[in-house]
Amino acid sequence: MPLLVEGRRVRLPQSAGDLVQAHPPLEERARLLRGQSVQQVGPQGLLYVQQRELAVTSPKDGSISILGSDDATTCHIVVLRHTGNGATCLTHCDGSDTKAEVPLIMSSIKSFSDHAECGRLELHLVGGFSDDRQLSQKLTHQLLSEFDRQEEDIHLVTLCVTELNDREENENHFPVIYGIAVNVKTAEIYRAAFQDRGPEEELRAARALTGGPMISIYDAKTEQLRIEPFSWVPFPHVDFWLQQDDKQILENFSTSPLAEPPHFVEHIRSTLMFLKKYPSPTNTLFPGNKALLYKKNEDGGLWEKMSSPGS
């Protein structure tokens, strides 16, 4: 009896709209979340999760108290939390390999459970909108179906996706919510935007743009952000793309050109510049082929680079 709402088994496949009609508490929670004002989240205690990244921690963490992600247009931000030990996972899914990503989310939460604890798994899905290509709709369906396939009971608590996260302006559709944060200690989920997306923002963005799979970026035991060595092939026609105007960049690099946040083009350009500068990252960006390690400084505000562990 995997995916449950208010203790009842969810009947799939259903659209997000049909699902909330069948379960009114979901509709009310989506309405309340949409109605919030956006909170600007500072770097204090924050771990920012980029596209195709996953981070998990618990209330015992002395460095991280907030997990967050934004810039989701057709993407969905997924939060899975165990109410017993407070272990919380946040990930930013783009539909590239949902079938592999959901088990990864599940196992990341299970890694905090040494023994059977009281409590339950609660799922929150936010993001997407009624886009022309129906990519959001497809991703919503994929995520609900994959969570429904898991062996454990999973309680769907928040569903603010696709048509439930849609607003219309001049006959164009946009997401209402682009980003959320979750307070690991209080379990509060709220609308959020972030200035600090580090560390190694460009390296991490380049990994996603070159098709890297979902990875876990944080080790809660050591309280370190950890980027294992990886490589990419030189980005094809990078000089050509860097010469294109904003409209061309939007149309070729976005799944939903009209709905992107204002900084999207600048972000893509800086990522392409990074890929041009480092056509092969293994030796230049990962000296000695070792992981890059970062830890929050004493007051929990800024990430500081650690020396790499011994070979």
From TrEMBL:
UniProt protein name: N-terminal asparagine amidase
InterPro entries, sorted: NTAN1 (IPR026750)
GO molecular function, one term: protein-N-terminal asparagine amidohydrolase activity
GO biological process terms held by the UniProt record: ubiquitin-dependent protein catabolic process
Entry GO CC: nucleus
Domain of life assignment: Eukaryota
UniProt xrefs under Pfam families: N_Asn_amidohyd
